[in-house]
Every structure is written in structure tokens, then in C-alpha cells.
Amino acid sequence: MIPPKELLQATDAYEWFKEMRKVSPVRYDEERQTWDVFCYEGAQKTLTDYKTFSSQMGGGEISLLGMDPPKHKLYRSIVAQAFTPISIEKMEPRIEQIARELLSARVARGEMDIIADLAFPLPVIVIAEMLGVPAEDRELFKKWSDALVADVDIAKGQTAMELLERKQKVAEDLYHYFGSVVEEHRKHPKDDLISALLQARIEEQSLDEQALLSFCLLLLVAGNETTTNLIGNAMLTFLERPQLMEKLRADRSLLPTAIEEVLRFRSPVQSLSRRVTTDTVLNGQQLKAGDRVIIWLGSANRDERQFENADQFMYKRHPNRHIAFGHGIHFCLGAALARLEARVALHTLLQQAPTMALRDSSTIQPLQSTFVYGYPAIPVTFNPY
Ligand code: HEM
């Protein structure tokens, strides 16, 4: 997926989206030969109508994200069991324990980086434990997942082809890594997700090696960076609003609604891709079979026609029908887990660090990516007494 040139050059992506929603909510970009959907209504229609807007993007995509029905439903049902709200709820005490352990040493020291010390390790440890892979390998996962969501690095003169080659190499490394982990589980089954995947049957057949590895890869990549960014985006939003921080500290039952607003206001996943299967009309525009479509979730979630005062962060916003987890049949499988991890991380942080402030707000810069929205580092200081 190649991002629009104007977006790469924009100083503020949200301002650019706003302009696009005004002048061309659904438009064709000749240069990239791609449709861009910026408005909420168009985004929702596209995601709902999976027959006209397929997730199969070509390029041999074999993960759940790139499947259409009926195959999609069969595969999704295999992992869905592990991600129901009831299964996820049971994980709360363990997630709390991990968050407390990660935080205790840092708080005593009087400073930390919200991302490196909490928002990054927490989801990696959780998914590693669910899958049954060693959490010690988390630095490797970080390197891989960062590389998979990177954009073309214009400053370094990188071409789209070089980026693609780099991503392919990283995907190969990941497959190789999971190949040996799966082998180990085949020999010694345990009570974890990889062992469950090894036992799963689709139409009486077990999953082939490729399908199995792609599940592992998907859970690791889809679930980690996104949740890291949700926790980071939430903390940054609260740190920028000290009065709100105090309100949340005093009444932590406000957290779930505030987290929903963070998902809308700073959506961790900014864009999704689809391919048109039959000629269709969207927002008065004629789309042709075979056309590529990018749905800008970040923009849709700031659409003034759907959300009152869309550019304002309203921690009690209700209703809040954001589409940060997507919409329709591919709705994020990990939504309940991501919400739980964010709530527990923020709750623990507010509880353990009575005062907290950004160390130097001028150094906080968003990630260089048009697929994801987040911050690589959020250094804070606190005065625990
Ligand atoms: C799908 C966002 C966390 C696993 C999606 C989609 C979005 C999304 C937008 C829809 C993709 C599409 O329609 O093409 C997010 C955000 C997260 C998050 C914003 C965190 C804040 C997680 C976690 C996991 C996960 C923690 C699992 C560990 C998945 C899977 C799918 C998916 C497996 C594919 C579902 C399907 O194709 O049926 N996610 N996600 N996500 N997500 Fe998440």
C-alpha cells in the first residue's frame, strides 16, 4: 500500500484529512491508481459490503485479514474461541500482575518511557503467553513488527521496491522463527494457542503449515503494535490534559469511556485496504472491478457529520460509534483483549504514579507511518510522594 504523496508531506495528517473530507470525501488518486475513502459513511459502507469490497488483495495473502467468506468464517472460528470476552476476562489478574511488575521498578526510579517500559512489553508478554512462545524474544518481535508497518523512507532515498523486499525478508525471518516454535509444540503439546491451532480441523483437515504460521504471525503483528499505540496515545492525551488526568485518577471507572474516545481521536490503525469486485458507485463516484481502495479510519473517526465537535477529545463522549477496530466481518478479533490491556495498564499507572508529567513535550513526535498512529517514545517523570 503506497500512501498519498500529500499525506507524506502534510505537517498534520488530521488537518489534511479534514480538508479531503470537505473537498473530496471519496477520490481517485491517479498517481497511486487507488481510491481513498475519507468520510465515515463511505468507510462504513465499504467495510460492511464485503462482497463488493474484497479483502483479498492478491499477492498470495493467506492470513485471516486477507480472506473472504466462506473461507474467512471457517478460519476465524478456529481462533475466535480464545478471544471471546469471557475468555479474555479470565486474563485480567495475570495482565494486572505483569503491569505491576513492569511498573514497580520504574516508578521508584522517578522516571520512565511509557512506550518502552510499559506499552510495548505488556501486549507482547500477554500474546507470547497466550501463544506459548518465549517472552524473552520480544525485542525480535518489536524489530519485526516495526519493519512490517514502515512506510517508504523518503529521507533515505528508499524506493517502494526496496521497502517491499525488506518486508518480505522480515516475513521470512518470522516464518522461520515460528516454524521452529511450532515444531517444538508438535513434539510437546501444551495448554496454549499454538497447541490448540495444531489440533484444529477445517473440514476434517488439520491446518497446513502455512496457515498455521500465518495465524501466529497475524496475532503477533496485528495485536502488539496496535495495543502499544493505544496505551501510548491514551497516556499522551491524558498528559496533555492535566485536569482530565486528575479526574481519571479520582474515578477510574471513567477509563473505559475515555479509552473509547482515544480510539476515535487517535486511532492506532489509520488505514485498511480493499479491492473492488464488481463495478459500483460510492459517494457518487464510479468504482470499477479490480480497483484498489484505501479506507482512512483515522479520518472517518474525525468526520464532523458523524461526531459532534469531532476534533475535540471528549472523555465522556456518548454515543461513540468509532470504527477504530474496523467494522463488519473482519471486526478486530482482539478488541476485547486490547481494551482490557489498555484499561489495566492505565489503571495501574494512575494508581502507582501519583503525579506524572511529560519530561520534554517538544521531543514527542509521532511515528513515521501512514498505516498506524502512535509515538515511538513518551518519556515522563513522576514524583511518587
Ligand atoms: C482485525 C484494529 C488489537 C487481532 C483488525 C481490524 C482493525 C484492527 C481495524 C480490521 C481489519 C480489516 O477489516 O481489514 C486493532 C486495534 C487494536 C487491535 C486498533 C488495538 C488497539 C488486536 C489484538 C489482537 C488483534 C490485541 C490479537 C491478539 C486481530 C485479528 C484481526 C484483526 C486476528 C483479523 C480479523 C478478521 O480478519 O476477521 N484489528 N486491533 N487485534 N485484529 Fe485487531
What is this structure's SSE topology?
Elements: H1 5-9, H2 13-23, E1 26-29, E2 34-37, H3 40-48, E3 53-54, H4 71-80, H5 85-89, H6 92-109, E4 111-113, H7 114-119, H8 121-131, H9 138-149, H10 160-187, H11 193-199, E5 201-202, E6 205-206, H12 209-239, H13 242-250, H14 255-265, E7 271-276, E8 280-282, E9 285-287, E10 292-296, H15 297-300, H16 335-352, E11 356-358, E12 379-382
This protein binds protoporphyrin IX containing FE (HEM).
Protoporphyrin IX containing FE binds next to α12 and α16.
Oligomer: single chain
H/E element string? HHEEHEHHHEHHHHHEEHHHEEEEHHEE
Described by the principal axes of the CA atoms, the overall outline is globular
Total helices: the number is 16
Distance between the termini: 49 Å
Which class best fits the helix and strand makeup? Answer: alpha+beta
Question: How many beta-strand segments?
Answer: 12
Bound molecules: protoporphyrin IX containing FE
How does this structure look, described?
The structure is a single chain. Helix 9 (138-149) packs antiparallel against helix 10 and helix 10 (160-187) crosses helix 12 (209-239). Strand 8 and strand 9 form a beta hairpin. The mean pLDDT is 91. The chain is of the alpha+beta class and 385 residues long. It has helices at 5-9, 13-23, 40-48, 71-80, 85-89, 92-109, 114-119, 121-131, 138-149, 160-187, 193-199, 209-239, 242-250, 255-265, 297-300, 335-352, and strands spanning 26-29, 34-37, 53-54, 111-113, 201-202, 205-206, 271-276, 280-282, 285-287, 292-296, 356-358, 379-382. The strands form four sheets. It has a five-stranded mixed β-sheet with strand order 1-2-10-7-3. Strands 4-12-11 form a three-stranded antiparallel β-sheet. It is built from 16 helices and twelve strands.
